[in-house]
Amino acid sequence: MNVFDSERISDSLSNIGIRKVRKPEWSDLIILNTCHIREKAAEKVYSELGRFKKIKKENPEIKIGVIGCVAQAEGQEIIRRAEIVDMVLGPQVYHRLPKIIKRIQEGERIVDTDFPIEDKFEKLVQSNNAKRPPVSFLTVQEGCDKFCSFCVVPYTRGVEVSRSPEVLIKESQILVASGVRELTLLGQNVNAYQARSETGDNFDLAILIKEICLIKDLKRLRFVTSHPKDMTDNLIQLFAEEKKLMPYLHLPVQSGSDKVLKDMNRGHTVRTYIDIIEKLRKIRPDIAISSDFIVGFPGETEEDFSLTLDLCDKIRYAQAYSFKYSPRVGTPAYERTNLPEEVKVSRLARLQKKINLHQTQFQMNLIETIQEILIEKRGKFSNQYIGRSPYMNPVVITSAKDMIGKIIKVRIRNSNGLSLSGEAVT
Ligand code: SAH
Ligand code: SF4
Q: What is the CA(37)–ligand 1 centre distance, in A?
């Protein structure tokens, strides 16, 4: 989501003559887009600002802004801690940037962490003559009403808001017209998408996907991140019906223990989660499932943790992200007793070992099969191209012809654990 926000901001600022440069040293405005989800991410902001301090010393005219969720959460505190910062902007006010940039150029220091009701993306104008890479994101929903007890998102991104379906269809058309072939619809709870069109029709995510898939030159569609509570039967059914919807679903479970899920206030059980996966596999047996996990949540016992390992054995994820629990100020879990670091480290290592094993097995199963690969970019070596399988695996191929943006049939030959390689078949 931050990548999408950054792209949209730079797209929109290019309309007022601001252009991207490759090094902060060459610029006269640095905007740092930040993430607050775990402590490590938030800490990075201050180490980056330390680096920028030297740049500002060399060039006192340079303006520095901190935007995103750290800006939202820390506001004024950032200006207090880092005097080189000229503006602090929360994620809902990016459309005010052109005016704010003008004001900081005149010497003001600005903190804006408002939650206005307007859709910032409608004002962050998407340029419609740009040539874009074949794979792109599109934010359709933002914010979260779920309040998991460990999570800062409801506080930094605000309540769930869905963007207008007409606007999203229009923006998708513009993206496809400028070269996009695969679109990933984004939202903190993307499957909670609910909006009414101007003509009064109710749109959920399944309906929105069907409409966007009507765009002829769009070849593939994905969506991320889904919550188990909002995984409706209509949406599940789409994996059987909609050819452009790729057989890959990121559905975070966080833990395999019902007790921990309850303490996390996740609003689903292990059983209801497994039921969703079983329904999906019944109608789309090859679907690749991915998840997020948190280990070492306050109160998680060794037995709770072993239930997470058991769940992994049951689901056999094609890939997954796993994190040590990170206490976040202002969340309910922050008040609870944090487990010792060594317990978290050991559990994370054991979980990741299992996830990696399953990931490797998923990849090995693709060897000698023929897969349709959408080529996204050039590889490191000449004539090398990198694309993705329908299941999201990166695939490396060699070709003398420029393949970017094309979907080609590839016989998978090898896996190195991270990516696959293969050769085009005619
Ligand atoms: N809305 C999505 C997740 C958004 S945050 C969902 O509910 O699944 C992305 C991931 O960061 C979460 O799935 C979780 O695994 C992780 N995460 C969030 N807060 C965390 C914390 N305090 N400590 C460790 N991991 C966290
Ligand atoms: Fe955070 Fe839970 Fe909302 Fe996901 S559903 S963004 S984990 S509060």
A: 7
Provide the pLDDT for residue 129. Answer: 67
Using most ligand atoms within 8 A of CB, pick from 188, 226, 323 the residue to mutate for ligand 2.
Answer: 188
Which ligand gives the minimal distance to the CA of 148? 2
Ligand 2, residue 225: give the atom nearest the CA.
4
Q: Which domains does the chain have, with CATH numbers?
A: 2-112 (3.40.50.12160), 128-246 (3.30.750.210), 253-365 (3.30.750.200), 370-424 (2.40.50.140)
pTM: 0.95
Predicted confidence at residue 16, as pLDDT, reads 87
Quick: pLDDT tens for 336-379. Answer: 999 999 999 999 999 999 999 999 999 999 999 999 999 999 99
Q: If you average pLDDT over every residue of the chain, what do you get?
A: 95
**Helix (H), strand (E), coil (C) string for the chain:** CHHHHHHHHHHHHHCCCCCCCCCHHHCCEEEEEECCCCHHHHHHHHHHHHHHHHHHHHCCCCEEEEEEHHHHHHCHHHHHHCCCCCEEECCCCHHHHHHHHHHHHCCCCEEECCCCCCCHHHHCCCCCCCCCCCEEEEECEECCCCCCCCCCHHHHCCCCEECCHHHHHHHHHHHHHCCCCEEEEECCCHHHCEEECCCCCEEEHHHHHHHHCCCCCCCEEEEECCCHHHCCHHHHHHHHHCCCECCEEECCCECCCHHHHHHCCCCCCHHHHHHHHHHHHHHCCCCEEEEEEEECCCCCCHHHHHHHHHHHHHHCCCEEEEEECCCCCCCHHHHCCCCCHHHHHHHHHHHHHHHHHHHHHHHHCCCCCEEEEEEEEECCCCCEEEEECCCCCEEEEECCCCCCCCEEEEEEEEECCCCEEEEECC
Mean pLDDT of 36-43: 90
pLDDT tens track for 194-209: 999 999 999 999 999 9
Pocket flag, ligand 1, residue 225 (CB < 6 Å): yes
